[in-house]
Amino acid sequence: MSGAETQEKDLDQGESLLAKIALEAELADYSPVKGCMVIRPYGYAIWEQIQSSLDKMIKETGHQNAYFPLFIPESFLQKEAKHVEGFAPECAVVSYAGGKELEEKLVVRPTSETIINYMFSKWIQSYRDLPVLINQWANIVRWEMRTRLFLRTTEFLWQEGHTAHATREEAEVETKKMLGVYKTLSEEYLAIPIIDGIKTETQRFAGAVTTYCIEGLMKDGKSLQMGTSHYLGQNFARAFDTKFQDQNGQLQHVHQTSWGVSTRLIGAIIMTHSDEKGLRLPPKIAPIQIIVVPIYKEQAEKEMVLKKCKELEETLKNDFRIKTDDRDQYSPGWKFNHWEIKGVPIRINLGPKDISSNVVEIVRRDTKEKLKNVPQQDLRQYLLKLSTEIQENLFRQANDFLIKNTFTVKNEKEFAEKINSGGYLICFWCEKTQCEEKLKQKTKATIRCIPFKLPVDQNQEEGYCISCNQKAKQQVIFAKAY
RNA sequence: CGGGAAGUAGCUCAGCUUGGUAGAGCGUUCGUUUCGGGUGCGAAAGGCCGCAGGUUCAAAUCCUGUCUUCCCGACCA
Prior knowledge:
With 482 residues, the chain is α+β, with helices and mostly antiparallel strands. The protein contains 15 helices and 25 strands.
């Protein structure tokens, strides 16, 4: 066991909350290469839960999984002007392989639009071939200056959807549909409330026409982009000549979308739900939903208690991911703390006293509340209800936090006062990039999105730009971001 | 990539100023005692002092370079 000493103290709420929890809860560890991380089994199990929930939704919306290669010819990246401009600085490039210099350098994919378009242009001939709805689970590499576990690593795992459509309308519907899937994933599975909206030009994906996003507010008051969905227009289709013959025999470029979420979501979970005891996982994505801690003194008791634990597991295993911590070398008290750090939503303490009176003791991780003498009959129902309650409570707490930290500001003075304490600022913006830039220079805050819906009620239709004070119709969300 | 801090036992750290046989607590192993919120006692094992050079009779300690982490800026999911 690592970090036993620091585990004894409550975890600090400092800047290093993220790294601390990631390491202590054994989600990840550092690799010898800068900015890279090892995702440890428990962290990977969380990723698998996220994956299986999302993969199901992706398939339900008609997409198929496929796999495109890691290496992309350097020339591909250069075909789309904005795309190359955006990604060139952060690309890792292989120039030497097989014992010699390569004729054409290979880019380690920072995203797969180019290689996928190359393939699409081969596969798409007719309107009858459309739409093409593809998703891939993959790793990608982006050479970042400053890295943080889960939130920004050099290599990370993600899912990238790529679709091609006959019309602009269809592609736009697709873009928003998948953003909706991300919203569902975040709010209903990860228990993280988000603000969904449109990115401004400066924050838009390199090569996209429109970028939609979901943004979450982290415990430290910073905003985290948790997922993006792009309407790519015909930009890549033109660059790669991805054309189809329509019903009138006319050749047209396809309209495309791409969308992705990554292992960053694990960072979001940490930075949204952790408390002084460690991680708190929403039941829907917790690799272990119920941990059973047996309590016993001598051997006879041990056998009796462990047998009862197995029985419990048997009756509950169809409804829950349940595990008994039957390790002999750790005391019950030690186990309590251990599983709290790891964020297991429900703990069942089971000892001789409980068994003799046919009850269990249940401790919920979200509130730390101890529920004594819960009858063993109807336990399944009780736990199902509790599980739902914990899921909802985590969302409610995060949502309250978001609302409490969202402010409407009317002028630059108010803006400057509020922005340093973190949270979201709602204000009018005249839609000029220079106004956005000016505020970024002064305050480090950026427009996270033009929200579809404001998180707090706001009736005004019109106001004055937070920066230049001219009439403005657009209300935007500002925040400091990761 | 700039500014600051750090890297010594599995973990947290002391030792470095002023060079001279590698330290503590926790954890681990064995024994014993315990087990309903991180048990007590006894013994033992465990270290290319991040890496590479240099200075020196002698380097964890001084010098140079380099790698990694953390914090702060410029860039991003």
